# Entry
Amino acid sequence: MAPFRLEARNAPSSLAKWLAPPLAAIAMVACGFVLFAVLGKDPVAALHAFFVAPVATRYGIGELLLKASPLALIATGLAIGYRANVWNIGAEGQLAVGAIAAGGVALALDASGPLVVLPLMFVAGALAGALWAAIPAWLRTRCNANEILTSLMLVYIATLLLSYMVHGPWRDPEGFNFPQSRMFAASALLPVIVEGTRLNAGTLVTLAVVAAAWLFVARTLVGFEMRVAGLAPGAAQYAGVSPAKVVWIGMLCGGACAGVAGVNEIAGPIGQLLPSVSPGYGFAAIIVAFVGRLHPAGIVVASLLMSLLYLGGEAAQVALALPSSITGLFQGTLLLFLLAADVLIHYRVRIGARTAMATP
Amino acid sequence: MISRPTIVAALAAAALALPIASLGQAPTTPISIGFVYVSPVGDAGWTSQHDRARKKMEAALAGKVTTHYVENVAEGPDAERVIREMAASGDKLIFTTSFGYMNPTLKVAQQFPNVKFEHATGYKTAPNMGTYNARFYEGRYLAGIVAGRMTKSNVAGYVAAFPIPEVVMGINAFTRGMRSVNPKAEVKVVWTSSWYDPGKERQAAETLVSQGADVLTHHTDSTAVVQAAEAKHVYAVAYHSDMAKYGPHAQLTAVTHVWDQYYIRVVKTVLDGTWKPDHVWGGLKEGMIEMAPFGAMVQKPVQDEMKKAEAAMIAGTLHPFDAPVKDNAGKLRLASGTLSDDALNKMDYYVEGVQGKLPSAK
# Structure
């Protein structure tokens, strides 16, 4: 018999819910302090490199927002589905097809003006991402196939499709057969909004989408139905909410947002199609969605934190020659503490065997 | 009055603050040099060879340089930030060691005209950005000679990442080397679509063995293919690094990348102010490629045969792509002379002896 067991709390404290993230952050910093000291690095310098140095300049802040933008955008879309128990794990693939569609538009039309090309790229990217997410939605509603598996498997198909396009039809004829498209003309690139940084208009798109998502979730009937479907599926169905509709909306929102994130990447910092257009934003956004507690405001904060951890990891490598695996470890401790705090909010640890209500 | 312990403490602090290398009297402050790596340094592979060379260069120029690196940097937007951060933090020379860093390096180079950039394996240059690469295909041809002599089934298996010219060039040179000593030899290729994926690489290796290959080689970054060869009791030619310890009974030899001398040379030109952007493509002659020591199973005559070809290549009397060059559809690609560097860099066909079709054939 295990000496420890978890017992559900009747009413999780709402104060604890709000205190948990800062507490997790403090625990992480304490853990980092010990970790860096053991490695023989000055812990204060290391923590400074992680959390202060990356955002000490205007360029750094631009980078922070640039890196947070795709995470926030994708996580916002995913959270709409997650709230309704629709588990879209395939945002990375939806991002890739969004980039393919928008890249096709850019390659075909970037000789015309930006007012024509850019809007078309966004429409194409959103539609393509939604279409890619529609496949698991259809399989789920039609064949009851688990969308976790199907959406994940479609990631590989999408990335191979992108790989095919840049190895084949869209390969830069001037590029020595390297697998990448030609660079887009300026009209297919998002304008930089802060001089001296790489921060571009794509971040404004992200902000607009996050605001729209908040309105959708908090202020519309469909948004309400989605929430109810997640909290009490039986009650929702009894009230006339179609489970199929919930799946469709959840998947399509996630797919469209991921597709737009793909557009932001290729029309922003990349400027062409490459065999890989995302360093795993589609997967990292899943973490961001949960760390942000599936709430648009929380997601924005979580995406900034995640972005800061990435930048800090690089800065720590540059400044202190910390190996990248240590950075990964340090970043992992935050998630560990956050999840641990969640468990402790909802459960209490009891020592000893269960008494009256023993499990069968 | 300064007490003795204070002085000791101050000295200790000063010693800690200084890198060990500069404790000797350096005449000037050392210049800082940055390296950007696409994967973790690890024990073997592409990045590992660059890092080995970085350390040797730093040791050779101790006191004049300090180096540091950032590993596991994704190609694309992240690379630009890392490179820029290095330039902004005072590096005078930055080596970006992956093809996908080309456009990011160029962008940063334009913003930092006083910093020198050296980009590996690309084709774009700038007044402060040069490129460097090695003629890996020369080593591939030599490896092919050994493989052609050692194979019993006359089938070699090639695990390759992406069908870009550099990889295709290697497959073709290996095949031509094999067939120069064994006209019956055939090469089968399996693509993994990833530079580093040990699971996939191993699977590909096992597939090739089940298709009759008894010599394996790879253009991927892990040691998986050599390990698979060891497990399946077939031979292997390793790439990037000497992987004999992963396949002591399998590794015939290895085509290894040696950047030490190049890095030392480039850094010296930066130190004495004679650096110019260049487009370096060096091979065996320049010492940028070396064949690893032979495995015990390679008999003396085979060793000699390979060494003879190596000497001929260094002397310039043998080129892996001397005419005639025929593709595997029977078309004559070169009737006389030797394939030009330009033709090599655009290679998009398999030579005679490679089975299958290039994935991206139009």
User: Anything to note?
Assistant: Chain B touches chain A through 38 residues (CB under 8 Å). Residues 8 and 262 of chain B are 42 Å apart (CA to CA). The radius of gyration of chain B is 23 Å. The first strand of chain B starts at residue 31 and ends at 36.
